[in-house]
Amino acid sequence: MRQHMKNSIKVIVLVLSIIIVPISIHTVQAQSGKTDYSKQVNAIKESFENKNSEKLMPHQSSEFIVPTSKSREQTQRGLNQMFTRLPFISLEIKESTKNKALIKYNFEQIGEKISSIHFNDKGEITKIELFDNLINEAVERRNAKPRPDEALAKKHPANKVTFTTKDNRIVYGELYEVGKKKPVILLCHQSGFNKYEYVDIAPKLNALGFNCLAVDLTSGGTFQEKVNETIENASAPISRDGMEHINAAEEEIAAAINFLDKKYKGKITLWGSSNSATLGLFAAAENKNVNAVITFSAFDHFREAKPSLSTIIPQIKKPIFMTSAKGEAPIIEKLLKDIKLRKNQVHFIPQGGGDHGSKVIWTGRPDAEEYWVAIKSFLNNIK
């Protein structure tokens, strides 16, 4: 099932799973009769190209700082993350006036963004609205909290479990069990989060007749003051650079599938959020013990390191439910452009705006019920 929708986008930023794509750069031209900020804007373009803020530094004013930073050093680290991880394609000046230039950016997977850069009378940059907006959006999302139903939580409590990967690393999870012969859902969180992402969701799935295992993956972190136990108790830290932590998470997902197969010997549905949703599709294509896959915001998060999902999805003959924020749907539609979905393979596009990742269905979220209706219909067909 495919649905059409408008091109608007909500962006998760500062996520370690975002992969840079090849850059196509527009020549920046100052408009005739307008204040010429092409040199400064070109420095931003070069910073994206070089994946660091070195070219931008000479053009920053002494008051330039990004949200959440408390020092110039923190600001530079934040800028380096932006220039490294945002999937930049191009930028151009749309309009320039005294102390301001309106910029159109184009990003792979994210689309176009239009916002201003502010300057002082010396032509030094005082503010880059794009970065401020993205950081503030990320902070707002990080501050969102799951709101578990107290009655359901009491009826369906979680029990802590552990299991090991092939390289003998211990993985921590919480098992929400309703019956040994019931189907099971493996719940995988988004980057920077942990199993607490599902404290609201898992009891609701229990009420639908599914056992659930929510796991802490090495691609995550502390979320809402809840630590990621797999990371916290690791015998040795795993690098956050490159793909090492993602590869570790992929091994942990495989170990969780093996744990559930041994325990239940029944149908396993893999549920992923953001980068773990992408990993879930790879697992569904490769692991015979995965019966179905549910993905929230699965994109080509690992473009330089792994094949495109457009080549993986056709290999999956199992039920698939793909969804995202409404503004992210064009990314999925592009992946599915040349793919004919099979029976019980669904691309659900919400009528409301939605959000990135599984948190969109937390209690109290504006469009949660719309997603739940679609998810319940899908789950009823695969029980």
Task: Explain the layout of strands and helices.
Elements: H1 38-50, H2 72-85, E1 88-97, E2 100-107, E3 111-119, E4 125-128, H3 129-143, H4 150-155, E5 159-164, E6 170-176, E7 184-188, H5 201-207, E8 211-215, H6 229-232, H7 244-264, E9 268-273, H8 275-286, E10 292-296, H9 309-312, E11 320-323, H10 329-335, E12 345-347, H11 368-382
Parallel strand pairs: 7-8, 7-9, 9-10, 10-11, 11-12
Antiparallel strand pairs: 1-2, 2-3, 3-4, 5-6, 6-8
Helix pairs in contact: 7-8
Short description:
This protein is of the alpha/beta class and 383 residues long. The chain contains eleven helices and twelve strands.
Verbal overview:
Helix 7 packs across helix 8 (about 275-285). The longest helix has 21 residues, at about 245-265. Residues about 1-35 have low confidence and may be disordered. About 30% of the residues lie in helices and about 20% in strands. The protein is elongated. The chain has helices spanning about 40-50, 70-85, 130-145, 150-155, 200-205, 230, 245-265, 275-285, 310, 330-335, 370-380; strands at about 90-95, 100-105, 110-120, 125-130, 160-165, 170-175, 185-190, 210-215, 270-275, 290-295, 320-325, 345. Strands 5-6-8-7-9-10-11-12 form an 8-stranded mixed beta sheet, sandwiched between helices. The protein has a 4-stranded antiparallel beta sheet with strand order 1-2-3-4.
